[in-house]
Amino acid sequence: MAEFKLEAIKCKNCGSGLMVEVNDFVTYCTNCGSGFEIIDGVLQPIEVNFANAAIRDEGEMVYKPFWILNTHVTILERTSSGGFFKNLFGGNDGSGGDIKFYIPSFYAPVDKLKELAYTFTQKNPVASPQKYNAKLTGYAFGREDAEKIAEFILISFEAEKSDTMKTFRYDIKFNGYEILGVPFYKQSDGRLKDGLLGIII
Ligand SMILES: [Zn+2]
């Protein structure tokens, strides 16, 4: 994207100019590492960190933002038991637990967004996010969109694990919001390959 807002936005912590693309929901200060969610034009602090690439590849590396949603899910009622919750909650009875959802915040084809969210949420590949002096832009989805996508992922996990699901009622509490920059390698065909799990979008 080549379009940028014309008005200058400055970091509330260090005063550096911030780069904001049109319709961005979040901005990150590469000077001091502060992150801000833009809510009705006002900067609200939000934690922004980056993942270290685990895969080496050729091609330019770019960082793409994900929402990290820290949630607590309680299963109120279900008539069949999928494997997803047992996997995520470490083999308990599957009645609920904490789930960290990884929800892409950037534009990509819907099936690719789902694959990324699905696989990253299951594998939870970023144990120790860090501060980098890296550019991070292109936030297409705000936190309310991210919450809806997380619920969609939750339901589709459950539905796809069972042919016989009749009832699935749950309660989800969103306890924390962060942004994670995930490294992607630009492929020669213009697609992107993530540097953690190797998913090509
Ligand atoms: Zn700053």
What does this protein look like?
This protein has one domain. The strands form 3 sheets. Strands 6, 7, 8, 9 and 10 form a 5-stranded mixed sheet that branches. The protein has a 3-stranded antiparallel sheet with strand order 3-4-5, with no helix packed on it. 19% of the residues lie in helices and 34% in strands. It is of the alpha+beta class and 201 residues long. The structure holds zinc ion.
Bound molecules: zinc ion
Number of helices, counting only DSSP H or I runs of 4 residues or more: 3
Terminus-to-terminus distance: 18 Å
Helix and strand succession? EEEEEEEHEHHEE
State which percent range the strand residues make up. 25-35%
Largest sheet: 5 strands, mixed
Helix share, percent: 10-25%
**How many structural domains?**
1
Give the integer mean of the pLDDT values. 85
Low-confidence stretches: none
Q: What is the global morphology?
A: globular
* Count of extended strands: 10
* Gyration radius over CA: 18 Å
Topology (elements, then pairings):
Blueprint: E1 9-10, E2 17-18, E3 26-28, E4 35-39, E5 42-45, E6 47-50, E7 61-78, H1 83-88, E8 96-104, H2 110-123, H3 143-160, E9 168-186, E10 192-194
Parallel strand pairs: 6-9
Antiparallel strand pairs: 1-2, 3-4, 4-5, 7-8, 7-9, 9-10
